[in-house]
Amino acid sequence: MLEAVVLAAGEGKRMQSALPKVLHPVLEEPMLAHVLRALTGAGLARPLVVVGPGAEAVEEAFSGQAVFARQDPPRGTGDALRVALDHLGGDGPLLVIQGDTPLWRPETLRAFLADMAGKGSGLASAEVEDPRGYGRILRQDGRFLGIVEERDAKPGQRRIREVNAGLYVLDRARARSLVTRLSTANAQGEFYLTDLFGLLAKGEPVEVWRLADPAEMHGVNDRRQLAAASAILRQRVVEYWLDHAVSICDPATTWIGAAVEMEADVVVDPGARILGHSRIGRASRIGPMSEVTDAVIGHSCRIHSSVVESSTVGDRVTIGPLAHLRAGCVVGDDVEIGNYAELKNTRIGPGSKAHHHCYLGDAEIGSGVNIGAGAITVNYDGRAKHRTLIGDGAFIGCNANLIAPVTIGAHAYVAAGSTVTQTVPASALAVARERQRNIEGWADRRSGSRKEE
Ligand code: UD1
Ligand code: CA
Hints:
alpha/beta; UDP N-Acetylglucosamine Acyltransferase, domain 1; binds uridine-diphosphate-N-acetylglucosamine
């Protein structure tokens, strides 16, 4: 049976980071997430990931999406392959991919596997302008001889522009017999997986599969390559959506995550970032400088310079400018959320309005509710969070404080400036504020006393 192995145990020294290399984000998702998604798309879900320094963090981030084997200490890619072979057992072909090459497309992996089927062992190569950092493919009269790593290459070999893409198919039995013959007699003192292909080539022809788009094998060893990976992927995703009925007003400043889904006639304005597993419905507009992460947005919505996180928004909703929907909000159809409004873990029913400067946290708000400017659900008493319930058609006046836990009945009114601590019955008016007192002539007396000084 074909199985996949991801090599992700390297120390990532060139990143100079406390974070394991494969957790560094490319287009705001950990590098390894991209590799696992490509594998899943190629029919190889739940691969074996070889992990090393920082293994716990990687295992936690991807638990359930992969199985893990630890390489301790990491002694090179050949040693990582040995760990994988020991862990997997069995026979049949192995697809080996690197955790630091996040730009593979699933269709490319499929094509590679289809072409390699029944051919034993092989690897992918690419012809590049600048081969620096990659292993060079050595050939004699066109026949593959082996791979030489840059640091071990002679000057003449360094000029070779055909490089090892870091994607391999291996016959497990052959690999098992050869992996023990790898040595550390090289510039890095490591067991090189690449040497295994030199050994193989001594006994049998090795298939080398030419990659059509060399950008796919882009490897990330340092922060420049990390930034370049994001840039390549960002451009790729933007172009995909331009070809799929989405208008992107300024492609150069737009970030759309690789897992985002959008329907026809969505418009994305300059500087917008749509990330995570967000889904944007037909004809919605994601306005300038908005950030939408892991959110589901209905159709014909308008989100203007606002932040929406892990929330579900209905149809024809307007949000912003400068509103913030934090995690756990469920917003009904035709809701209007205005300037400087903040919502958290709040459900707000169809047609409700919260136009200005409000905070609605841990609240259950019905339909057709009007939340006045500056109204606040006081959900935190310093120890615990409490819920606020607001019935259908209620009207919350400006600058009201609703001290949770509290219930405002349907069609009730809360007078502006009230601090509400008790249930307001349906259709009642709650007034909970100091009665106004006017002191006649006060200002005149004050200025008079000033003149006398
Ligand atoms: C490797 C290849 C090189 C190829 C390039 C493509 C080798 C020796 N060289 O070089 O020919 O052109 O990738 O990107 O394989 N890893 C482990 N355990 C280890 C060491 C590394 O799991 O002990 C993992 C790393 O986490 C990484 C991958 O293997 O994901 C590649 O290792 P890296 O050190 O980045 O190899 P390169 O120098 O890029
Ligand atoms: Ca690498």
